[in-house]
């Protein structure tokens, strides 16, 4: 017994001297900067990476997940900067997280911390009841010490397990935050993700029966820490072969920041049974044999061996540098992933805008043919031109009225010419075309609603900056709220009314005036001829022989004949003049008809541009400008990201 106590004392002194030596060595390294990587370079890289985050990452308010949000990485790098700036010694931070209540992470920690051979069972009882009074807390920090407030989140114990390593441990125990129903998506809360990533060593405990490993390993919060240990609560034959690790690596996200965790198989309940076997009678051979069987069968020692393998790679300074570089790489990887998503979203926006723009251009190209038909290639080719056909049909109807309005009827209805012609024009002028345009106006209104709804759908679908610009949305809303925006039944028929009024106001008025002048001229000619005939006839009655025109060599009969001829010539002149006036009226009709076709096509183009497509075109133009601007911003951020990545690679090579 004395020999055992001497050996224990010797081991205790050896561990104490070794700890003092490691502490002095770490302090010396921090004081002299001999850590493999200059500390100021790490701090500079941390500062530059933190400055890059707001340009590359979106905030949590925009619906991003934990490991993709700006706030998460700001907190991580801020804590890393503070830790890297410190020159004081600190224990190794180990975070232990049980995926669910069946992972038995609490039993695993209890089995590691308990002293099965101690004579003071009160310390073991304190370890087992460490969560009492802290039900509202999600984490419990376990460190070496002699005092612990039962309601505090810091639990101190004198367990020798925390000080048996080259560097003392500080364990942060995280309670399960995920139910078995949500394991398929497996989204950790912010605090748990930050705890696992900020720890020097992260231990994730899962039960393979309740937790599918693919869903677990696909979560970046589990694999971002380079010192992640995955504890599977099973003691089946350990399949940690090369083939198993290759299959396991396929489940980990293929990014530079994700790491394949170290997988060990442990049975915490059997480890607890091993400790309980020695509590009754530690000298009993049966109890000792039971302890050995359960201890070896639980594989609990693989946890300690894995921790020693990680901690034996260097001092706490080396581990701190490794974690700092890992955090920087993870942050840069998150920025890179965010930029890839931004590029994909930019491409999707470009495709959506391009698709809508194609629809707009197609509508512009088709609307002329669908509404007004193809324009006539020549005056004689009217097939397919709706306007020319409508004007020709109206001319046919009006011609019937004009043909009945001969010069003889015109004489008796000279004051009604404008009324007769105006009524004919009103009744015949493109009535079918007007009804057809009103019908097409409804179709244009439906097209307007469709493309306007499409641009709002694009803005709603891509709700991340800069595409969810409220300025752009408000400008489109102002366009749609404008009084001139709706397509009304009168939108396309305006030129028909204008050209109809033009025919009535100008050519018809000139025709009316021409008729009046013709009647006056014809009346004057008839009156002159009648006067000449009367003068010759009057001389003959008076017995003057040659009559009143005898002085000029005209006898009475000749004078009467000349007078009658003058009257007939006046009527002939009136008939010809009236026909020529009607011909000029028809020439004006044709010119107005051609102008109507041009006006309708111009009005249709203007309606498409200023009413039907104005909101969609404005939105597409502004979105295209935002895409170009966003592309330039992404390229600038990628250049800065490449520089930081190259600096990080150089530091990692220097630290090896």
- Average per-residue pLDDT, rounded, comes to 80
Low-confidence stretches: 1-34
Estimate the helix proportion, in percent: 55-70%
Report the strand count: 7
Reported CATH architecture of the largest domain: 3-Layer(aba) Sandwich
Which topology of the largest domain does CATH recognise? Rossmann fold
Along the chain, the helix and strand elements come as HHHEHHEEEHEHHEHEHHHHHHHHHHHHH
Radius of gyration: 50 Å
Q: How is the main sheet built?
A: 7 strands, mixed
Strand content: 5-15%
> How many domain units?
2
Cα-to-Cα separation, first versus last residue: 47 Å
The structural class is: mainly alpha
CATH class of the largest domain: Alpha Beta
Envelope shape: rod-shaped
**Main sheet: which strands, in order across?**
3-2-4-1-5-6-7
Number of helices: 22
Could you explain how this protein is built, in words?
The chain has two domains: 13-340, Rossmann fold; 386-612, no CATH class. It has helices at 2-32, 39-56, 70-85, 105-113, 121-128, 190-198, 213-217, 220-223, 242-251, 268-280, 285-298, 301-311, 316-372, 386-404, 407-412, 417-428, 431-461, 470-480, 494-505, 507-542, 556-612, 614-655; strands spanning 92-98, 139-144, 154-157, 169-174, 201-206, 228-232, 262-265. Helix 13 packs antiparallel against helix 21 and helix 18 runs antiparallel to helix 22. With 656 residues, it is mainly alpha-helical. The chain has a seven-stranded mixed β-sheet, with helices on both faces. It is built from 22 helices and seven strands. Pfam families: Mmc1_C. Keywords: Coiled coil, Membrane, Transmembrane, Transmembrane helix. It comes from Hypsizygus marmoreus. Residues 627-654 form a coiled coil. The chain crosses the membrane at residues 518-542, 548-575.
